[in-house]
């Protein structure tokens, strides 16, 4: 398992948190995604064989948020 920390801009409420966590947790290979609204981050535990940060970035951006790192 690997861990990625994505910097996510545009989140401001619980709905945002749930949208990002839900989208990431549906990605094949993601074991667990947790969003920290204060830090504006999503910490993702994932299987490197099944997924990668660029895929996670795309999924978050599809929800309407910007991934800056």
Automatic annotation (TrEMBL):
InterPro entries for this protein: CopZ (IPR049740), Heavy-metal-associated_CS (IPR017969), HMA_dom (IPR006121), HMA_dom_sf (IPR036163), MerP/CopZ (IPR001802)
HMA domain segment(s): 2-68
Keywords: Metal-binding
Annotated TM spans: none
PROSITE patterns per the UniProt record, alphabetical: HMA_1, HMA_2
Domain of life: Bacteria
Family annotation (SUPFAM superfamilies): HMA, heavy metal-associated domain
Keyword Ligase in record: no
Pfam families (UniProt xref): HMA
Keyword Metal-binding: yes
Full protein name: Copper chaperone CopZ
Species of origin: Salinithrix halophila
Gene: copZ
